[in-house]
Amino acid sequence: MIQKLSLCVPLDRCGVWSVKIFHIYNGFFHKQGKPGNFIKCSIKKTKPNNQIQLGFKTKGILINSRFLLKKKDGIKYCFKYNTIVLLKKRLTPRGRELYGVIP
Fold first, then answer.
1. Ramachandran region of residue 58, left (φ > 0), alpha (ψ -120 to 50) or beta?
2. Residue 14 region, left (φ>0) first, then alpha (ψ -120 to 50), else beta?
3. What confidence score (pLDDT) does residue 2 get?
4. Contacts of 51 by beta carbon, 8 Å cutoff, 6+ apart
5. C-alpha span between 2 and 32 (Å, rounded)
6. How far apart are CA 56 and CA 48, in angstroms?
7. What ranges make up the beta strands (E) of the chain?
8. CB–CB of 68/76 below 8 Å?
9. Contacts by 67-75 with C-beta closer than 8 Å and gap 24+?
10. Which residues neighbour 71 within 8 Å (Cβ) at sequence distance 6 or greater?
11. Nearest partner of 2 among 29, 27, 35, judged by Cα
């Protein structure tokens, strides 16, 4: 579960190092997000001389969370970081390639 105002690490190679979530889609008063939810975030840290500036607002999809998740078949898993994939339009990722574990 990821809440508003939490920090995340992008999984795509677009030059962004960290983002802060400020809106979670799926309802008006949606306070927590699970992997697979769409979010709106602002960029907090980037690579020097990057096209994407600090404070730029963009959409993304939650991929992994640090919260322990349980599946119906009994598998439990959690990850080291909260990770997202930043989006350009609809479902097009900002970076050219993704790295890391994607369940």
1. beta
2. alpha
3. 84
4. 15
5. 5
6. 15
7. 2-3, 7-10, 16-24, 32-33, 38-46, 57-64, 69-70, 76-77, 83-87
8. yes
9. 67/1, 67/2, 69/34, 69/35
10. none
11. 35
Give the contacts of 18 (CB within 8 A, at least 6 positions apart).
7, 8, 9, 10, 43, 44, 45
Cα–Cα dist 50/30, whole Å: 32
Is the Cβ–Cβ distance between 59 and 38 less than 8 Å? yes
| Band (1; pLDDT cuts 50, 70, 90) | confident
- Please state the pTM of the whole predicted model: 0.84
Encoding tokens for residue 64? Answer: 């992994």
- pLDDT digits over 29-81, tens only? 778 888 889 999 999 999 998 888 898 999 999 988 888 888 899 988 888 88
